[in-house]
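Q: Could you fold this chain for me?
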Amino acid sequence: GDASYIRFAFSQPKFIYSKDLIERICRQICSWVWISGDGKFKIRTLLRPTDTWAADKTVDYNDITLKSISRTPVGNIRNNVVANYAYDYGQNQFIEQSTAAADSGSNSSQSSDVEGFNQVLKLELDADTLDSGTADKIADAQLKMFKDRKIVLDFTCQRPLYNDLEITDVITFENWDSKIKLYGVAMGVDYFMITDISKSPFGCKIKAIQVKTLANA
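A: Sure. Below is the predicted structure, expressed as structure tokens.
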């Protein structure tokens, strides 16, 4: 699979914080690393929308107060991605570049029709590898995850039912009000990843971004 193909190869000739090095590697493979509230070292890798997701918890709509439904900004879209790789330490520069992974053509995010944004929003990133296949895979993964606007939910819970949740945990919903649509689409077996959570002894406030929709299930 794609994960088995990732081959990192680089040198670190200067002293840097180990945390900075770990975070740099993780960013390339769409992963987050952090120290959790219980003091444990954790890592979470973002799956693609077509991958198989599993929820860490199901949130009952009757337990929450929905504050807003929004979309991520168009400026966050990246529908053309290239990866620089094969760093030359003598020249102090990358000497190779992956073939651009682009979401182009009709009905794409670059198109001018109803499905698109009529914009090429480019991301150029540096990959710690010498392998062209790895660079291509990194660029393609970034494209698949960031080429579309995502739905964001903002809600509160007035009881500490969900205070065990953390950033990057994945949730689904049950007993959702059928009258409340997600931009015209009924809530189904949709998965959301928590991007922000604020806790108190009496409950929590949560923001979560849609990572997999019923259409991809």
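A (continued): The first strand starts at residue 31 and ends at 35.
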